[in-house]
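Budget justification aside, the reviewers requested a transparent look at the raw inputs and outputs of the sequence design task funded under Objective 1. We therefore reproduce one unedited record. The lines immediately below are the structure tokens for a 261-residue chain.
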């Protein structure tokens, strides 16, 4: 007798469509419409982003570990798809004409896919912490050898010394690699888990295929997300309370265009 888990493993992967720049504009437009329709709890769901960022940033500055501030802020993009899981659920319910009150964002904890979502979430967190460890190691091998005694001295050393520029260039290149890896794995995998009965592995493979089938479009999507997160991080990550909900809702609508119902 075939079990449910065996079905998940051997079931064919979802099909993937080719999308264009017009689809990105439409997804963003629909994501903004979702945010306007349900702004209060969208902000509520993402409020922990600026709050957590402020708390951690203050802690780091206080203890003179400013070198991790930029990797930490950049790392938000790595775990963003996992953190926005409730927003995908709200967009899904609104699309179906169901009640999209804020408490339904937590329906994901009762979803049949909750364990697959947790597996994928743990993977994204592991990538996030790997990025932080590598960033810390790069700092120790470059600017860290100069032993700056304050946050001001650290920022001065980054932009006025060869070691600082070495860290800056290599840090951005490595960070870009982590960003590409994260996007390939998670760009539509979490919405897919909510929408269809598939395993975490199937969701990852489908997400990777969506990037390979649409390299230029998905590269532009990644650039849009990066710019939006950068703008939302000014000042002190507060703008993420608006940027994150819009991107989260838009991601759901992009998923709808990539994977046939």
């Amino acid at each position: 007798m075939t079990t449910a888990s065996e079905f998940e493993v051997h079931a064919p992967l979802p099909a993937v469509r080719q999308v264009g720049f017009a689809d990105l504009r439409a997804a963003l437009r629909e994501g903004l419409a979702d945010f306007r329709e349900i702004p209060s709890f969208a902000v509520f769901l993402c409020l922990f982003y600026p709050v957590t960022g402020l708390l951690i940033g203050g802690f780091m500055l206080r203890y003179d570990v400013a070198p991790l501030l930029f990797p930490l802020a950049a790392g938000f993009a790595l775990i963003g798809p996992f953190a926005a899981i409730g927003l995908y659920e709200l967009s899904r319910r609104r699309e179906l004409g169901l009640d999209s009150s804020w408490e339904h964002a937590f329906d994901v904890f009762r979803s049949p896919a909750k364990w697959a979502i947790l597996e994928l979430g743990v993977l994204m967190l592991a990538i996030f912490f790997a990025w932080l460890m590598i960033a810390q190691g790069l700092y120790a091998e470059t600017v860290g050898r100069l032993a700056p005694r304050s946050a001001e001295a650290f920022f001065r050393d980054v932009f006025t010394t060869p070691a600082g520029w070495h860290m800056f260039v290599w840090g951005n290149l490595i960070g870009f690699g982590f960003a590409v890896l994260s996007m390939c794995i998670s760009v539509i995998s979490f919405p897919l888990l909510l929408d269809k009965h598939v395993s975490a592995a199937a969701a990852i493979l489908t997400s990777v295929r969506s990037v390979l089938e649409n390299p230029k479009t998905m590269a532009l999507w990644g650039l849009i997300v990066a710019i939006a997160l950068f703008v939302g991080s000014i000042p002190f990550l507060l703008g993420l309370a608006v940027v994150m909900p819009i991107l989260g809702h838009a991601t759901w609508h992009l998923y709808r265009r990539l994977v046939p119902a």
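The chain has 13 helices and no strands. The CA atoms of residues 8 and 198 lie 5 Å apart. Computational costs for records of this kind are itemized in the attached budget.
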